[in-house]
Amino acid sequence: MTETAPTINPYDIYRHLRETAPVSKIGDGPWQIACHRDVNTVLRNHETFSSEVSLRPVEDRQTPTMLFSDPPIHHRLRKLVSRAFKPSHIEQQRDQITRSCQQLVSQILAETEVDLVSALAAPLPVMVIAKMLGVEDGNMQVFKNWSDAIFSNIADILFATPSPEALLAADEMDHYFLDKIAFIRQHPQPHLLGRLIETKTEGGYLSDDELLSFCRLLLIAGNETTTGLITASARVFHAFPATLGQLNLDPSLTTTFIEEALRFYSPFSATVRRTTAEVEIAGQKIPKGELVLPLIASANRDQRVFEQADQFNIARNPNPHLAFGFGIHFCLGAHLARLEGEIAVNCLARHFSSIRLTEPESPEMYGLGGPKRLNVSLQVC
User: Fold this and answer.
1) Residues paired with residue 356 on neighbouring β-strands, in sequence order
2) Bridge partners, 281 (sequence order)
3) CA within 20 to 30 Å of 288's CA: 135, 171, 190, 213, which one?
4) What digits encode the pLDDT tens for the residues 96-134?
5) Has residue 15 got a pLDDT over 60?
6) Whole-number Å distance between alpha carbons of 217 and 205
7) Residue 304, exposed/middle/buried by CB under 10 A (0-12, 13-18, 19+)?
8) pLDDT above 70 coverage of the chain, percent
């Protein structure tokens, strides 16, 4: 049940780093951490490796989000929305997600070539998170455009000057959600945003800025991971064609397929932390205040953790990949992303006997969240 992957970048670079420079500094920039054990250490030790990475003046920063905050702010924010993302609550959405997926796939059954991102991988998770937030009457393509403009500019948002496109997208998104918040305050509704508006904390009700920070995070993070997972699955179908038939014959393999796709083509190649004190990793001392990049994609190909790490094993178990992070910042939407991925993969396997990339793999495919376009040829079963 294993097949050898073709030679691809940047995994050759990651292997070289793990073998020769597992902890290294990029010029005057951040440190990069390449091995699974060390990446795991960084992700779980939030006291030494802080998520409050921006050095912008406080007055220039947006309201904190769960992604870029530490306890106690992080715990308070996560607690407010964690109930909506519990496995039992997510499972209740299975039928609705299945209907949405089937609707999208039915529109490409007559096609021989499509952009799988615009046809399925992007709209499906946007539709799901929009319904959770109570904004399913909005324009899904506009939501996705906002998300991509902001997400692709995240480094500049944190450390430099955001692009005009990112600033415009953020402004349009904020105005849209402020109007929604104002309406829901007058007309209470039972969806996630409605519940957040009605939630009273120790400090009182959430402010508009706090509500906006949730909307931004949930809309963006709620779709980018799943989009990356679906495109990763399609890339697996291209590189290892037998997997599509295996899933069609035995859908029970879907669970391990999803975990292996997350490991093999990690949607997020890295994340970022900042040291709060001098620390030593793999014999290398890193000073206080330094940016650190845990290379998740590298960790997920570490041959000391994963037997035949550069092979795709559809039945790999156990599979301790770090695609969803680790520790207190473990992806809140992991259960949702897995469910959406499972439904999408099963739907594709039922309807298509072949899914092949029509263009060679490119560096853009390894960016954060995966490719923004993925042209594939399709052969119906």
Assistant:
1) 377
2) 284
3) 213
4) 999 999 999 999 999 999 999 999 999 999 999 999 999
5) yes
6) 19
7) exposed
8) 96
pLDDT tens digits for 40-95? 999 999 999 999 998 765 545 565 678 889 999 899 889 989 988 999 999 999 99
- E strand intervals along 92-222: 113-115, 200-201, 204-205
Write down the pLDDT at residue 4. 46
Q: Please report, for residues 257, 343, 349, 350, 378, the alpha-carbon distance to residue 109 in angstroms, rounded to integers and kept in the order given.
A: 23, 17, 12, 11, 8
CA distances from 186 to 138, 183, 197 (A): 19, 5, 11
Residue 15, φ and ψ in degrees, nearest 5: -60, -45
Two structure tokens written together for 217 = 């995070």
Cβ-contact 266, 323 below 8 angstroms:
yes
Calculate ∠ Cα 306-308-311, nearest 5°.
110
Measured CA to CA in angstroms, residue 232 lies from 83, 91, 121, 155, 366 at distances of 28, 23, 10, 23, 10
CATH number for 2-380: choose from 3.30.870.10, 3.90.1150.10, 1.10.630.10, 3.30.1330.10. Answer: 1.10.630.10
Which contiguous run of DSSP H or E holds residue 157?
helix 154-159
For 26, counting Cβ atoms within 10 Å of its Cβ (0-12 exposed, 13-18 middle, 19+ buried), the class is: exposed
- Tell me the pTM: 0.92
Tokens matching residue 84 = 């909506």
CB count within 10 Å of CB 91 equals: 12
Which residues have CB under 8 Å from 310's CB, separation 6+? 4, 5, 11, 301, 303
Tokens of 266: 């990690």
Q: For residues 322-331, give the mean pLDDT.
A: 96
- Helix, strand, coil proportions of the chain in percent (round to 5)? 55, 10, 35
Taking the alpha carbons of 248, 253, 257, 259 in that order, is the dihedral positive or negative?
positive
Query: Helices H, strands E: what count in the chain?
Result: 16, 14
Identify the helix (H) or strand (E) that includes residue 25.
strand 23-25
State the average pLDDT for the chain.
91
Which position has the token pair 């699955």? 233
Tell me the per-residue pLDDT of 285-317, one tens digit each, with 9 for 90 and over: 999 999 999 999 999 999 999 999 999 999 999
Identify each DSSP E strand in 134-272 by its residue range.
200-201, 204-205
